[in-house]
Structure formats: structure tokens, C-alpha cells
Design a protein that fits this description.
By secondary structure, the chain is of the alpha+beta class. The chain is about 25% helix and about 35% strand.
């Protein structure tokens, strides 16, 4: 179920010509009340809305955030989002001016859902306020778009966390318009310009592939480093006649002492079912500045923190 614009004072601005409009989805049951209560809980002496009284502000209709993954993008899809993220954003208005936002967390939506207040973003957060005001100003300009004059579009927000990409998503029965926001830096993408899913996939796919390749490389490096830590600890125990068996790496702790380029002295923590918690002072030599471990040398065994011995 949806309802047409409830943003105070914006219905005439955004509705365009005829009956076409930007449509805001109905928020979760009880969400508006929870957000309003959270605003009312603010102490009278707390400068949340400057000199404004709480009675002067209105909580407007929310929009929901949808999230796409890098793997979806690589496979050629951007809007194949079956499950929206579990949070909503409520604009806090004075007339047609945005003075803050509030987020509402939603979980277990398939079974009725539970709601929890998230974050109240107020004028003290200048970056969020300016971004929100800029986005709102852009939404007012949508009345001039031919597509919006011709049919209704539901307002959504689209996130690609893996690329730090965020866009306005206008969803209609016959098409979708994706409008990138300017906080994503890519010279080939023009903010506040409409793109089709196919166009954005073509532009963003190469970066998605680079990010995925880098993640795979980092994951392989982490596995290599962990294996080197564990092997060094097990070799030390075997050399000292202790039968600790398999040791799992648990932590790296400081203070970290640089010895020379790519060489540090620190402490490694491990755990063995036969010996319990273990702690070692080690010298680690890295192969490069990407922290790929070349060699781990255990200097001495030390008493694990909180061991009581």
C-alpha cells in the first residue's frame, strides 16, 4: 500500500501536472509515533532544533533504503532487490525546510516486525543536513521532468555499500529511473541525471570487478597471515616439548615496536584445547607494505592477559 505525498507543503510542488506524482511508501506501523516520541524525549535545554519549539516541527513521510551487492552488479543486475534493508529515514520538517532526519530500524518484517528507533540527525551534523537539504531541493525540481508528469513513481533510495554509491530510485510499473547522488565520486557519472539500470551496470561493473578482485586478494592474504601465525606458535610449542597440538590464532596486540622497514615486534594470542590461552612475543617480517607476512619468529612465551598466574 502507498499514499501520495505527505511531505508538508510539498504536494503541490512535486505533484506536477495532472494526477502523476512522486509516491512515498507507507512506513512501518507505529514508526511515526516512535520517531515523534523520540523527538519529544529531547530535553528542553538541548539545542536540537535551534530556537525552534518541538511543536513547530513535523515528521514527514519516510523513504526506505534498498541495498544491492557488488556480486549482483557483476552479474548484470542493479535493481533486482528482493529484500529491502531494515531501515527507514524520516525527514523532520519545518514547513518546507528540512531541519533533521530520524532513522527507524525494522527487523523480522516477515513475521510482523519489531521497530527500534535508530539515530536522530540534527543541525549539529552539518554534512548530513546539507546533503539532505540538497536532495530535498532536487526532489522539488522533479516536477519539471517529463517522465514524472506522465506517471507515478515511488520514491526509493538505493545503496551499493561495496562501492559507496547512493542514488534516488524512482520506481514505476513501466520503468525505473536511477538518479546518482553527488557524494559518489566517478567522473563518468553525472549526479542528479537519470540513468537506466542497463546504463549504470555498464559504468559500474568494471569498478565492481576491481573491488571484488581486491577483496579476494585481501582475503587470501589474511588466510596466509593467519596460517603463518598459527604455524609459528605450534613450532615453538613443539620445540619446547609441549604437546599443545593445534593452535588457533586469536589476536594480535601491542604495543607494536617497529624494528626496521617491514619488521615489527608485537604479541600474538592463540588458543589450544590442550593448553588453553597462549600468548607470545613475536617478530614479524612482512614481504611488502601490504602486510603480507614473510616470516614469524617467536621470541618468547609470555603470560596471557587475565590468566591469574
Amino acid at each position: 500500500m502507498t499514499h501520495k505525498l505527505l511531505l508538508p507543503g510539498l504536494a503541490l510542488v512535486l505533484s506536477g501536472v495532472g494526477h502523476a506524482a512522486i509516491i512515498y511508501p507507507t512506513g512501518p506501523d507505529g514508526g511515526l509515533l516512535i520517531v515523534s516520541h523520540a523527538i519529544g524525549e529531547v530535553r528542553p535545554d538541548e539545542p536540537v532544533f535551534g530556537e525552534l519549539r518541538k511543536a513547530d516541527v513535523v515528521v514527514a513521510s519516510p523513504h526506505r533504503f534498498y541495498s544491492a551487492g557488488v556480486t549482483d552488479l557483476i552479474s548484470g543486475h542493479l535493481l533486482d532487490v528482493r529484500t529491502p534493508e531494515t531501515w527507514w529515514e524520516y525527514p523532520i520538517m519545518r514547513g518546507t525546510n528540512l531541519i533533521g532526519t530520524a532513522t527507524m530500524m525494522e527487523s523480522g518484517a516477515k513475521t510482523g516486525g519489531t521497530l527500534k528507533f535508530g539515530i536522530l540527525s540534527v543541525p549539529g551534523n552539518a554534512d548530513n543536513r546539507d546533503r539532505g537539504q540538497e536532495t530535498l531541493a532536487f526532489l522539488r525540481e522533479l516536477k519539471n521532468w517529463l517522465q514524472v508528469k506522465q506517471q507515478d513513481y515511488e520514491l526509493r533510495m538505493l545503496n551499493l555499500p561495496g562501492l559507496s554509491f547512493q542514488a534516488i530510485w524512482l520506481h514505476a510499473k513501466t520503468d525505473d529511473l536511477i538518479i546518482p547522488l553527488p557524494w559518489y565520486s566517478n567522473p563518468t557519472i553525472h549526479p542528479y541525471q537519470p540513468y537506466s539500470e542497463k546504463q549504470l551496470v555498464k559504468i559500474l561493473q568494471p569498478e565492481a570487478k576491481r573491488v571484488t578482485k581486491m577483496r579476494q586478494k585481501l582475503h587470501a592474504q589474511e588466510e596466509h597471515n593467519q596460517a603463518a601465525y598459527e604455524q609459528a606458535m605450534m613450532d615453538y610449542e613443539q620445540a619446547h616439548g609441549n604437546k599443545c597440538g593445534s593452535i588457533s590464532w586469536r589476536s594480535m596486540s601491542g604495543p607494536t615496536q617497529p624494528v626496521e622497514p617491514y619488521v615489527i615486534i608485537c604479541q600474538l594470542g592463540g588458543f589450544a584445547s590442550e593448553c588453553g590461552m597462549l600468548n607470545y612475543k613475536v617478530k614479524i617480517t612482512y614481504a611488502n607494505h601490504f602486510n603480507t607476512v614473510k616470516r614469524v619468529e617467536v621470541l618468547e612465551k609470555v603470560t596471557p592477559p587475565n590468566s591469574g598466574s
